[in-house]
Write a structure and sequence with these properties.
GO terms for molecular function: metal ion binding. It comes from Streptomyces rubrogriseus. Keywords: Metal-binding, Zinc. InterPro entries: LanC (IPR033889), LANC-like (IPR007822). It is a single chain. This protein has 423 residues and is mainly α. It has a single domain, classed as Glycosyltransferase, CATH 1.50.10. It has 18 helices and six strands. Helix 2 runs antiparallel to helix 3 and helix 7 runs parallel beside helix 9. The radius of gyration is 20 Å and the shape is globular.
């Protein structure tokens, strides 16, 4: 990476942090304030990361966490890993990792609430499994479901029984289920990808994504295994997911790719319907899934699969058709997310692929913030843009975090991205 590119990316990250220095200066819809993806906890992460890396004051992180906790937090069935008390717990735990003894009382309360919420979720999920019903996406996905809780617990309480219970559930989720006389994967959901009934998805679908599908479950199982945490059937469950992804992999001519989802008609025909080239993002698509596959191969010691996953990621990050399908800058489904995934994967890659992955990063960063562009102008445009805003997944804070972790000379030391299951 050239010095000019590094300076440009750091300049934009600094500008975003300065613009978001004071929580009182940012206007957010009430519904977004408790949201990790859209609101105060996610913006706090930016200041936590900068403070931990010596790039900014801890007071800003404290101010954003205080603002996030100023009003009563949603807990229980109306909360989820990205909303309410669990979202604040995630951000506070990230700060506490680097400030020993800080937030002890708050974290004790949040930990108890999170454990209680997870137990209730698990009870409901096992009742559903016992009655043979299909799951909702929000039961198991990364953003709203048990996989997201597992990501938090893996970092916060890796030795806890509640994490093992979540992993046991993930194993159960991968067992086939018979519904309406057909054998379906256990993560088949009766709705569309929105989680609501959708006439475009008669009979439901199997979601592949990292945000809302089985890709996130695979990544959680793989990351737990890399931490030495296994439950009964752990490797077999990962194997069932891998076999499914192997079966539905397609060669696009620009490298291997995986569908965002499989519909009931595609399952019956055992063939995907033709689809236009899709963006290779974190939330859906080849980039996120290739990282999950790389993590799984590292956990299982499968060098062949590891090389295949890394080659697929390199292809996705350099194929003009796939990059042309990427139309925004965001962490969730834009160039910032691609750069961050490339940096994470490069750190774990086989020597034959590490350099290729790192070589792709400058182009991705330049798509976020071309060298020579005024960082203050870009920051204002991002924060005021209806589709971006100041938040983590779609907005300026997440873009700044991705720039820091993939383009900075001294990468942040925090595990801010644990919620994405990419590291």
């Amino acid at each position: 990476m050239t010095a000019q590119t590094a300076k440009s990316t750091l300049g934009l990250a600094d500008a975003v942090a300065e613009h978001l220095a004071d929580p009182g200066s940012v206007s957010l819809p009430t519904a977004h304030r408790q949201h990790l993806a859209l609101g105060l906890p996610g913006i706090a992460l930016l200041h936590i990361v900068r403070a931990a890396a010596g790039l900014g004051p801890w007071q800003r992180a404290h101010d954003w966490l205080a603002a996030a906790s100023r009003e009563p937090l949603t807990s229980g069935p109306d909360s989820h890993p990205f909303y309410g008390a669990p979202a604040l717990a995630y951000a506070v735990a990230c700060a506490a990792d680097y400030l020993p003894g800080a937030y002890r009382r708050a974290l004790a309360t949040l930990d108890r609430q999170t454990a209680a919420d997870v137990s209730c979720r698990l009870d409901a999920a096992h009742r559903r499994i016992d009655t043979g019903r299909l799951p909702a996406l929000a039961e198991f996905d990364t953003v709203r479901g048990l996989t997201g809780y597992g990501a938090h617990l893996l970092r916060r309480a890796p030795d806890s029984s509640v994490l093992r219970d979540v992993l046991d559930y993930c194993v159960c989720l991968t067992h086939p289920i018979t519904h309406d006389g057909e054998t379906l994967p256990g993560w088949w959901t009766p709705t569309g990808p929105s989680g609501r009934p959708d006439e475009r998805f008669p009979g439901g679908h199997a979601n592949s994504g990292m945000a809302h599908g089985i890709g996130g479950v695979l990544a959680l199982l793989a990351l737990a295994a890399r931490h030495g945490i296994f439950v009964a059937g752990h490797e077999e469950a990962a194997g069932r997911i891998l076999a499914w992804l192997d079966h539905w992999q397609e060669d696009t001519g620009g490298g291997p790719a995986w569908p965002y989802w499989v519909t009931r008609s595609e399952l019956r025909a055992d063939r995907l319907a033709p689809f236009a080239r899709r963006r290779p993002s974190w939330c859906y698509g080849t980039a996120g899934l290739a990282r999950a596959l790389q993590l799984a191969s590292l956990a299982l010691g499968d060098t062949r699969r590891r090389l295949h996953a890394e080659n697929a990621l390199v292809a996705a990050l350099t194929d003009p058709a796939q990059l042309n399908a990427t139309t925004d800058k965001a962490l969730c489904h834009g160039f910032a997310g691609l750069a961050h995934i490339a940096a994470c994967a490069a750190d774990d890659a086989h020597p034959s692929n590490a350099g290729r992955l790192r070589a792709a990063i400058p182009t991705l960063l330049a798509a976020v913030h071309p060298p020579g562009t005024d960082p203050a102008h870009t920051t204002t445009a991002l924060i005021q843009h209806e589709a971006y805003g100041p938040g983590l997944l779609d907005g300026a804070a997440g873009i700044a975090l991705a720039l820091l972790s993939s383009g900075a000379a001294v990468p942040p030391r925090t595990a801010w991205d644990a919620c994405l299951l990419v590291a």
